[in-house]
Structure formats: C-alpha cells, structure tokens
Design brief:
The chain is of the alpha/beta class. The chain folds into seven domains: about 90 residues, no CATH class; about 70 residues; about 170 residues, Rossmann fold (3-Layer(aba) Sandwich), CATH 3.40.50.300; about 70 residues, no CATH class; about 80 residues; about 90 residues, no CATH class; about 190 residues, no CATH class. The protein is built from 36 helices and 27 strands. The strands form nine sheets. It has a five-stranded parallel beta sheet. The protein has a five-stranded mixed beta sheet with strand order 20-23-24-25-26, with helices on both faces. Strand 3, helix 8 and strand 4 form a beta-alpha-beta unit. The chain is globular and about 110 Å long. The protein starts with a helix and ends in a 6-residue tail after the last helix.
Length: about 900
C-alpha cells in the first residue's frame, strides 16, 4: 500500500512541498499530523522560495501595478492602444499589464522585434528605458534565479510537482530545475471496492467506463429552493456527530455556504466557519459614502446612509439627531440640519471639538457633478477615512475583548482609503466621476472576509473547490453543481502561433485548466465512504461543473432526466431512498395570521381622554377609534430608523417651505410677477439644501416640472387673494380657540385678511385635485372646518376657506364659505364650512361611547357601513375604491395590528 501524504511528511522533518500548476489551493487541515507541508500553486512555491532566500516582497496591491503601468502607457503614446486608453484608461492598462505578465513568464525579453506581433512590439516600446517599481510574478522569479546564481543555497527539501515541469511557463522551468523534485503519490480511488462511489472515482480517473448506479455511497437529489437544500443537509448531518470532522462540504457559492452555516447553528450542529469576501461590511462603506459627499449637490441618501451605519465616524447620538433632521428636510445645510447642528453643539461638552469633526466630514470644498474633481480633494477625504479607521482600530486593540473581526475590517478600510488616495494623485491633478468610480472599484478589491460563525471544534469542513481536498475524508457533500466559467485566453490563435515561432512559448490556458481538473479529481478520489450531490435552482443559471457532467453522463437514463426531488420525496414519504443521508419529518400545523377584527375589547379604565385636540386627532378619533387608541393611548410608534420622505411628500413639504420663506412674514401682497420671481429665486436656492433628492442630475425633468408647478401655483394664489382684496397675515399660523372645551392645537398653512377684518384660510395640498374637490363639494372638508372653527369670530361667524392644489394650480373654495377672489376663481357649489363643522362635531359627540364606557373599541374601516354611528360618513367613504380604501388607513402605522393588511 502506498504511503499517504501524511506518512510521507512524517518520514522527514525537511520541508515537503506539494505544488500544482493551477493557481489557488488552501490548507483544509484534513491531515492535521502533517509536518512542514506546503500545498498550493505557483504563488505558494514562490513565497516559500523568497522566504528561504531572504527575498521578502511586500504585498503590492494590484491597483498600484495597474496605476504605474498606466502612467507608462501615457508616456509612450502608442497608437496601437491610444484610442483604448482614451475610452477606458484603467481597463486598458489592466488588460495590457496582464498580457505583459503572460509574455514575461513565457520567456519574452521585452526587446522590440519585427518578428513579433504589433501589440507585443508596442508593449516592448513601453518598457524601453523604464524600471517598474512594483514587481510582478516574472520579476520576482528573476530575483530568485539571480539569488541562486549568486551562490545562495536552498535548504534540504522535497518538492512534489503534480504537473510535469514541461507544462509550466518557461521562466518557471529554470527555477524548478534548481529544486529537489520528486514524483507525487499516485492518485488512486479510495472508495469501497464495488461501490457506486468507487465507480464514480474510477470514471473520473479515466481508469474505466462503467455506469454509476446510485446507492448508499453515491446519492444525487434536486431541490426546488436553497432553503430546503440547507435544511436537508443539516438534518442529514445531525444524527451522526462522530462523522462531522471527516465530512467535507464543497460549496463554491459563499452566500449559500453562509446560509448553511446559519442553519447548522440554529439546530445546534457544529458550524463550518464559512467565510465570504464582501464589500458590504459597514466599515467599508465609509470610504465610498464619504467620497459621495465631495460632489455638489450632495446626495442625501448617501449622507443618510453614512449617518445610519452601525459603525460610523460620527458619534451615535449626533448621527441619530442629524439623520432625523435629514428625514424631514433631506439636504445637507437645510434649516432642519442647521438647527440640529446648533442644538447638538450647544449640548456638547466640547462644542469646538464636535464642530471641528462635523466640519471635517460634512464641510469643505465640493465639485459640481459632471465636472472634474481635484485629486487633492480625493486624497484629503481618503486621508480622513484612513485616520479614522486606523485610530478606531488602535482604540479597540487597547480595549481588548472580542473585536478581532471589527479591527480587521477597520484596518482593511484604512488600507483601502490610503491606497485610493495614492492612486488618485498618480492619475493627475483632476479626475472625472467615472475615473474616480473605477479607482474606487480597484481600491475596494474583494472587500473584507467575514465569518458570521466560527469554525466549531470537530465540525464539518467547507471547501470552495474539490482541488482543496488535500487529505482523505469519509463523506463529501457537493452543494450546488454550478461553477464559474474558466478564464479565456487573451491571445488569438495567430498571435500564439506567431509568438511560438519566435521562441515565446505562451500557454493558451489549456495546461492550467488541465492542472485544475486533475487537482479536482485527486480531491474527489480521496472520499472513502459516500458522496451526496445536491442540485439547487441557481445551478440552472450557471455552467455545470465538468466533473459533474462526466458523472451525470454515467448515471442511469431515468436518473439523468428525472433526478429525485427532495420536496417530492418528503411529500410521498420516500426520504429513506436517500440513506445514509436520512432525516425525520414532522408535521406542524401552521398557525394562521390574526384575522382582521372590527371590534377590540379594551378595558375603559385604560383609556383617558386627551387634554387637547387637533384637526388630525379629531378626524382619526371618528374615523378609526382603534388607530386613535394605539397612537394616543398605547403610544405605539413606528421604527425610529430614519428614511428619506417619498417624492410626493417631499414635494409638498418643500413647496410649503418655499411659500413660508417668501410670504411667511405676511403683509401686503406683492405683484404677481414679483411674487413669482421671489418664489422661483427661493426655489433655486433652497432645492439643493431642503429637497436634495430632486436636485440630483437624474431628476432634471422632474425638477423643472416641480418648478413650473410652483410658479403656476404662486400666480393662482396671488391672483385669487388680490382679487378679493386680501393681505397675508402669515403662513404656518398657530391654531387657537377651543373645541369640546379643550385647547385646539395645530397650524394653518395660510391665513389672509381683508381690510374689513374678514379672514380667509388657505390649505396647501401638493396633489389630489379630485379628492379635495369632492371633500368640499360633499361637505366633508373637516380639516378646513376645524381650522375655521379655531379662527371663528366672537359673533360665531367663520372665515372663508379654500384648498390650493399646488401641482395643478387649482383653487377650490365652497360657495357658502368662499374665499372671495374677485371672479378669478369659480367657487364650488357646497355647504357652508360652519355647517361642516357642526356635522363633524355632532358625529364626534354621538360616536364617543367607546371612550367613556367598556364598549368595544371599533376599527371602523373594517366594519360594514351599516354599523357606523350616525354622521361617521363625514370622514369615511361607504363606497371606497378597492385599491384605495379609507383615507384614515392611507398613512396608518397599525395596519398589521388590526389585520387590514395581511402578514405574508
């Protein structure tokens, strides 16, 4: 019997190297008794050589090499790729650098020769008279050869090459010739003789062609969802904990492996410690979000994202207050933002320090979008992020505790920021937005490696490739048979032939691919007992793994065409057909979600009437007592997580604020032209500050439409009020008076007055022309009625009222309580607003029994209209449109509680 890798390593304490041509490879620790072993590809071998010869090379970000080569390309002005550089400088430099690396490994001497293709000659001219600071693989190999030629000696070692030296690039062959080479142990199937597993291993090794009859040693099952796949694997693993340490789970997809780990953790099975490279780590978002703040107008979503990160450079309390201000007026520098800053600074122990920090992150120079940003500005922002991340990491190290992953992420963020700052300065004095995005892409790289669950002692082992299985294991679970496409050759067939004729032996990719496939077959052949292949839906969107295609071709025809489906086996009670990967099924009755309830039993002793009232509160009290109870008695509020207002709400709020800035002080009405000019001036000045989402470059048409709408609404408002001889008293006027013997609170959008003392109330609405027309016509404008009641004169007379629909420039006023417009607007035939108030007040008086007794609290939108109290239809629609529902429900936060909105 041939010795195993572990036994070979133990024979000697001299270094043992097991090297393949294909890149990648990682220690899977399936043979923990190895001594002095190195396993992997060319990079593993090169690092070992450099360490033995005292030639350590600092890790060089690939972006540095690309940037340096791009500068060399710029200097030469080669026509062969000049147009490509203009179109996409970074991509062109990346591609040409990769081609240069290929050529150097293939033995190219960087000499311009007429025998070479024109592109190769152009690359030679780029290199003439130039020494590159950042070495690639070829330069590092030449240093190794130089050290050996100078007399340095490698320690006693043994290097087993899985691929013949002839398959390696020519530059490598000179190095391999200096090593003590030995043949690797031959690959042999280790599955039980006669088993389906053994047959499958033999098929892949090319030692025979037999049909694979699935059995306990080889199972294949298809699932209809990733969730069922990970649940099945967890259930199959759980009964045999003794097998965990010798079980390998091969899953290329990081997100799927993380889902499996989460499932293992939930059911108490030792986790694999699956990791994934991701840029989504909150710490890594600080750099791109900070760079977004360097453009004008500032994107409020990027600003809000920065403030609400779990780890942010802004103190948590400060960030929360600023985010709340941003959710009201979304813009850096809005009145709400400035007010929040002033209050925070006044409350801070060290106001100067806080002011300095906020100015560093949110102040300073900015560049108009679409223009060129100065490289120094990019460098300054990158330095700011790097200092914060490195400083925060140092503090966490000093504190100790379980912060290892966060410290690592912070250090990665600091490195990325420093790298991007260097790259930006190398490119020149300015950068375009696309250029900066490309550099950021390179600086971020793969992101940071995250590990939600630690690798548990004695748990199963996850690998990303079959080639990473470097020792015997008992079971293999192959989760997902899709795989990434192989990297294609950069050179055409003619170019490869031309180069070979001149002695430059370029690999077209076949040799490296063959090495990878051989390594994968070696890994598969080390499974002793059983293999379970689980196909998931996403496999249909990817290229099937070549090894799986080879195995699938030897399965019975029925198995190839109609493989077992996990969900069907569970439904039919056929799970035993997957032995030894069995599991138990249990039926659980699913509890249905709460049904919609129109009546709620709430003890009257828990309900206490309010000591003040408002228009919206009174409307909710009549329309839906349950909503009123949950909001004003139970005090249930939605999540405090800040979010930007939707477009409709933002437009309405912004138009209100513009009118308030222009007309808020009251006084005589300006001429229409002057009013329009002042409104548009305020619009243009405040839009990037108070409504920045609409100021973004992609919103040009929407921005112009809103500007036109506000201009038209201004004309309508001024013409209507001027026609009636009104002057503006004020905007956002506090509502006084009483209702139901309680103070009446709130504010009125606009109050105007004539010389004779008659008042007018105008309520601004952004949209909803048909809605507000109907409210006035049908005598249901209860909000206006409440405002009018609060401004009623001692003699009981009510002011005129009107709605101004801003988006359409429509002025709706009732005929019996009109805002006089001098004929500029036609009133709507409708009852007096005093009558509306009386009807509203009477309905409230009749419908308040639920608050003063133990009667059930009704959710009236869920009741049949016949069950409503008399007069409630003034705030409810007995025939609402199916897709609209009741108005009181539109912005209600409690729809999941009452059941009007189902839980899905």
């Amino acid at each position: 019997m041939l010795p195993s890798y572990s036994e070979i390593a133990i024979m000697s304490f001299h270094p043992q190297l097991f090297i393949r041509l294909a890149t990648g490879g990682s220690r899977t620790h399936l043979a923990p008794d190895r001594v002095g072993g190195y396993f992997g590809g060319p990079e593993t071998l090169l690092l070992w050589l450099e360490s033995q010869l005292g030639l350590p090379v600092a890790k060089v970000p690939h972006a540095n090499r690309v940037s340096e080569y791009a500068a060399a390309l710029d200097a030469v002005k080669e026509p062969a790729f000049e147009a490509s550089l203009r179109a996409d400088r970074w991509a062109t430099a990346t591609e040409l650098l990769a081609r240069r690396d290929d050529l150097l490994l293939a033995g190219w001497d960087e000499v311009d020769s007429e025998a070479h293709p024109e592109l190769v000659r152009a690359l030679a001219r780029v290199a003439q008279g130039r020494t590159f600071q950042f070495p690639g693989e070829a330069e590092r190999l030449k240093r190794v050869v130089g050290a050996l030629d100078a007399g340095q000696v490698l320690p006693v070692h043994r290097c087993s090459l899985h691929d013949p030296a002839e398959a390696w690039p020519p530059l490598w062959r000179g190095v391999l010739a200096r090593l003590t080479l030995s043949d690797p142990p031959p690959t042999a199937p280790v599955g039980a003789e006669g088993s389906a597993l053994r047959v499958s291993q033999t098929v892949l090794l090319g030692a025979g062609v037999w049909d694979i009859i699935p059995g306990e040693s080889f199972r294949h099952v298809r699932t209809r969802s990733q969730s069922s796949a990970v649940e099945f694997i967890t259930a199959a693993l759980a009964p045999m904990p003794e097998k965990f340490p010798r079980t390998v789970i091969y899953c290329e997809d990081d997100s799927l492996a993380l889902r499996l780990d989460a499932c293992l953790n939930r059911l108490g099975v030792p986790t694999m410690g699956a990791t994934a490279w991701s840029r989504a780590h909150p710490v890594l978002q600080v750099l791109p979000l900070s760079l977004q703040l360097a453009w004008e107008p500032v994107d409020p979503q990027a600003l809000l994202d920065l403030l609400t990160l779990p780890v942010t450079p802004i103190p948590r309390k400060v960030a929360a207050r600023l985010a709340k201000a941003l959710a009201t007026e979304p813009g850096l520098g809005s009145s709400k933002w400035n007010a929040a800053r002033e209050k925070l600074e006044s409350e801070a122990e060290d106001a100067g320090k806080l002011r300095e920090r906020l100015e560093a992150w949110f102040g300073g120079e900015r560049t108009a979008r679409g223009g060129e940003i100065p490289s120094r500005l990019v460098r300054a922002r990158c330095n700011l992020v790097a200092r914060w991340a490195a400083g925060r990491a140092a503090l966490l190290r000093a504190e100790g505790g379980e912060y290892a992953e966060l410290i690592e992420a912070l250090q990665v963020a600091a490195d990325q920021a420093a790298l991007l700052g260097e790259l930006a300065e190398i490119q020149g004095t300015t950068l375009s937005e696309p250029q900066l995005e490309r550099l950021l892409e390179e600086a971020l790289g793969e992101g940071v490696e995250t590990r939600p669950f630690l690798q548990a002692e004695g748990g199963p082992l996850r690998v990303r490739s079959l080639a990473d299985i470097d020792g015997p294991c008992d079971r293999l679970i192959w989760l997902g048979v899709g795989t990434r496409d192989a990297i294609g050759c950069r050179w055409s067939a003619d170019q490869l032939r031309w180069l070979r004729e001149t002695g430059v032996e370029m690999d077209d990719g076949i040799k490296r691919l063959a090495s990878l496939r051989a390594a994968e077959i070696r890994g598969y052949s080390q499974v002793r007992e059983s293999v379970l292949v689980v196909t998931v839906p996403q496999d249909l969107e990817q290229r099937r793994h070549p090894l799986w295609l080879a195995l699938q071709a030897r399965l019975p025809e029925a198995e190839r065409d109609q493989s077992l489906v996990l969900e069907d086996l569970i439904a039919n009670g056929g799970t035993t057909s997957l032995a030894p990967f069995g599991f138990d099924c249990q039926e659980t009755a699913i509890e249905p979600p709460q049904k919609a309830r129109a009546l709620w039993d709430i003890p009257g002793s828990l309900l206490v009437d309010r000591d003040k009232v408002s228009a919206s509160e009174l409307q909710d009290r009549l329309a839906c007592p349950l909503k009123w109870t949950l909001q004003y008695q139970a005090r249930l509020y939605p999540s405090p997580i800040a979010q930007l207002p939707d477009d409709h709400q933002l437009k309405g709020t912004f138009c209100h604020s513009v009118f308030e800035r222009v007309f808020g002080e009251g006084g005589p009405l300006p001429a229409v032209a002057e009013a329009v000019e002042r409104v548009l001036e305020a619009f243009d000045k405040r839009l990037p500050l108070d409504a920045a989402p609409i100021a973004q470059p992609g919103k040009h048409a929407e921005r112009q439409r809103l500007r036109s709408q506000l201009e038209n609404a201004t004309r309508v408002l001024i013409e209507a009020l001027a026609g009636g001889g009104y002057r503006i008293v004020g905007l956002e006027v506090a509502l006084g008076g009483e209702a139901f013997a309680k103070p009446l609170t709130g504010s009125i959008d606009c109050v105007a007055m004539r010389d004779n003392g008659e008042e007018a109330i105008v309520d601004f609405k952004y949209g909803g022309r048909s809605k507000y027309h109907s409210l006035i016509k049908d005598g249901k404008a209860v909000q206006l009625a409440t405002y009018a009641h609060g401004r009623a004169k001692p003699d009981g007379s009510f002011p005129g009222v009107a709605y101004l629909v801003l988006s359409d420039g429509l002025f709706f006023t009732p005929s019996q309580s009109p805002v006089e417009t001098g004929g500029n607007q036609s009133p709507i035939e409708a009852p007096a607003i005093q009558t509306v108030w009386q009807n509203f007040a009477a309905a409230l008086a009749k419908a308040g029994g639920w608050l003063t007794s133990d009667a059930a609290v009704p959710a009236r939108p869920l009741q049949d209209p016949s069950e409503w109290p008399s007069g409630a239809a003034i705030v409810l629609n007995d025939r609402p449109k199916k897709d609209e529902g009741q108005e009181v429900c539109r912005y209600c936060d409690y729809q999941l509680i009452c059941g009007i909105k189902e839980i899905t």
